[in-house]
Design a protein that fits this description.
By secondary structure, the chain is an alpha/beta fold. Helix content is 36%, strand content 17%. The structure holds pyridoxal-5'-phosphate.
């Protein structure tokens, strides 16, 4: 199997973690040798309710027996997608009422960009330096890091960059700007939170010049930061909200939500965005079960208590800082080498950790929201043991 994996599946990394998976349940993934791996990553923030949550499995199984794919997006009335969009609207501010369900985070970003250009009639998009919004041509064009996109040029034109949290850079938002797109909490850049009412100020400037504000909640969304969406912490409502990852507890999905007025522009000219599988009933059923569980349980509130527990346990001279909110946490290590060693040694100890895209000193901790206190303690004990051993060596 391992040989076939390297031979037949396209590889994009020289050093994949390469765990051979047998099954997964709750906070654990089991490999084909029978070893349990405690999951502090949740498929990179996707498995909000852990692995194979019974309510999600039940919703998928039930829907799969009724009907699966029956038509492309937007033609037939399919109960799971309608119920999902309606329930989501009931949880969001009034101006975020209409949802377009798609297949991934990056497609949701593409949809949001198209919508912003279509609605404003302008072309300029401003993104943040060090942003990550996905890997298709449009979202790749927004990426702040030149080395990751240079070989794919030419990308989409009229994209500019501002520094996240810089008030000074708000001057670049003008009447030429179709949209400013920001991650509510920057992910790949190192789990950087907005400070000094930054998002409120961006919101004000966008409103003043008639630009739309797009917030990418693909990582912090769905309860991970203690609120359903992170923008709720910062007194700022976007014009377009982009979602993905944790939305359906591990099934491929994305969505963008806006007002009736903005979304209506996708009908003129007609078919402003087309997808075959967007709104797929099985995936929408999984998303609805996930959203209900998150909103009807104590999981959101508990994610803030779990943050406190992580922060109280993970005190070590090699950890310089813990960034992020709720269960979107990143350990900032003394240097890249320690971060790398920690991830690799944790793997050998049966604990799953992961890197961040652009901040090499960081180690990601984004477990399922359902992780228990005992599991947090178990994983943190392993981290501290590894760091003690590394501290005993000469790691500068
Ligand atoms: C903030 C953010 N935006 C967009 C994406 C792209 O989502 P997907 O990988 O589902 O296309 C990601 C994925 O990591 C992300 O973290």
């Amino acid at each position: 199997m391992e040989k076939d994996y390297y031979k037949y599946q396209a590889q994009t990394s020289p050093y994949p973690l390469g765990m051979q998976v047998s099954r997964a349940s709750g906070s654990y993934i089991y490999d084909t040798n029978g070893q349990a791996h405690l999951d502090f990553v949740a498929g990179v923030s996707a498995c909000s309710l852990g692995h194979c949550h019974p309510k999600v499995v039940k919703a998928i199984t039930h829907q799969a027996k009724q009907y699966m794919h029956v038509m492309v997006y937007g033609e037939y009335i399919q109960a799971p997608a309608v119920a999902y969009s309606k329930y989501l609207a009931s949880l969001l501010p009034k101006t975020l009422e209409v949802t377009y369900l798609v297949n991934s985070g990056t497609e949701a970003i593409e949809g949001a960009l198209k919508l912003a250009r279509r609605f404003t009639g302008r072309s300029e998009i401003l993104a943040a330096k060090n942003a990550y919004h996905g890997n298709t041509m449009g979202s790749l064009s927004l990426m702040g890091l030149e080395e990751r996109k240079a070989s794919f040029r030419p990308l989409i034109p009229d994209v500019g960059y501002i520094q996240f949290n810089s008030e000074e850079d708000l001057k670049y938002i003008t009447t030429k700007t179709a949209a400013v797109i920001l991650e509510t909490i920057q992910g790949g850049a190192g789990f950087i939170e907005p400070n000094n009412n930054y998002l409120e100020k961006v919101r004000k400037k966008c409103t003043a010049v008639g630009a739309l504000l797009i917030l990418d909640e693909i990582q912090p969304g769905f309860g991970r930061t203690g609120k359903l969406f992170a923008f709720e912490h910062y007194n700022c409502v976007p014009d377009i909200l982009v979602m993905g990852k944790g939305m359906a507890s591990g099934l491929p999905v994305g969505a963008f939500t806006a007002s009736q007025e903005i979304m209506a522009t996708l009908m003129n000219p007609k078919m402003g965005h087309i997808t075959t599988f967007g709104g797929n009933p099985v995936i929408a059923a999984a998303a609805l079960a996930t959203l209900k569980e998150i909103t009807e349980s104590q999981l959101m509130a508990q994610s803030l208590e779990k943050e406190i527990l992580f922060k109280s346990l993970l005190v070590h001279p090699l950890i310089k800082e813990i960034r992020g909110k709720g269960l979107m946490l990143a350990l900032l290590m003394k240097n890249d080498q320690i971060a790398n060693e920690l991830v690799l040694k944790a793997k050998a100890e049966g604990l799953i950790l992961f890197w961040l895209l652009f901040e090499n000193r960081a180690v990601r901790i984004t477990p399922p929201l359902t992780i228990s206190e005992r599991e947090i303690k178990e994983g943190c004990t392993k981290i501290l043991k590894i760091l003690d051993a590394l501290n005993g060596q000469t790691v500068n």
